[in-house]
Amino acid sequence: MTNIVVAFHSGYGNTERAARAVAAGAGADLVRVDTIDAGGWSLLDAADAVVFGCPTYMGGPSAPFKAFADATSGIYANRSWQDKLAAGFTNSGSLNGDKLATLQYLAQFAAQHGMQWAPLGLGSVAENRLGAYLGLMTQSADGVTDPADLAAAESFGARLRLLAARWTGSLTAVSR
Q: What is the pTM of this model?
């Protein structure tokens, strides 16, 4: 059994919808990083895999997510997240919205912690409507998240569940 945590910030509820879909697919716990408490930090410490998610605001991660990332400097210094599996997702109102910059930030954040990054891994246009591969991108135009993006989020979560099981040795063979 693997422990997966989705650590996210959502300003208007759109990113939270994606976080819930990823968590449903992964069988993961959810931790809101803007209201994180000791219990949330404990979940992250015990996790085998952490999925980071935040909205893209002004071409980068939201300020509350960045504050969370900055608060992990002690974890960085202790290398407590070294060799955990990591992945990420972001949401914005437009098709692009410079979401790639946010995914790059999340991947770099994970790399600084010594985590192993898992890309989206969904290849077809039907699965990956926005064509991202570094992580999951979702779009919420007028406050409505595209249903195809939520389906991709759940598939991404299921993929991460399998990767985490492989990573921890809980699963020796996975058929696709």
A: 0.94
